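Hi, here's the filled form for the chain we discussed.

Project: internal
Contact: R.S.
Residues: 195
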Amino acid sequence: LVMASLLMFYFLKPIGMTTHTTDYGKMTTIELPDSSTVVINGNSSIRYQDIWEEGALREVWLEGEAYFIVRHLENNTQFKVYTDNLSIEVLGTEFNVTNRRGNTQVTLNTGSIRLDAPTKVPGKLVNIIMKRGEQALLTRDQEFELKVVNPELYTSWKDHELIFEKTPLWQVGQIIEDTYGVNVQFKDSSLQAVE
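And the returned structure, exactly as it came back:
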């Protein structure tokens, strides 16, 4: 009876969720159940199911910023990342996602990903396949923009560096506030537009 109870508990226990959260200014690297790697930036969190069944959809929910190195599986099992305003279907790749202040930015380093994002037209989605070096931005107002960028500028944080190129100081201030929890103020407001 005891053995039967233990077996039932083991096989019928509900699948839980794992959450990893970082403090301001802290980064952590974790390995997902499929051996994919995620570097989580400061003031960010991801969550996913504790157990990923073979062949089942692999899903991760992100708030903040994370760099994903997704392991390609032989059976082409899907891997999806969700933010509060879009879903990213990974097709075996490395990419960065920033989900802050109601805006989501996806920068693709290698491979390809498919994005599904809502538009201003109810019930209509933007559905694109991104290529290496492209960056997609979905604003809180559901404005969508796709452009070619240098991915290193958007992923340098994972190497403990911040690289900026023609970035307005107000935007640098927001990145510092969001990642490190430091309040940035400009005594001279005209400096905010300086690149």
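Let me know if anything looks off before we file it.
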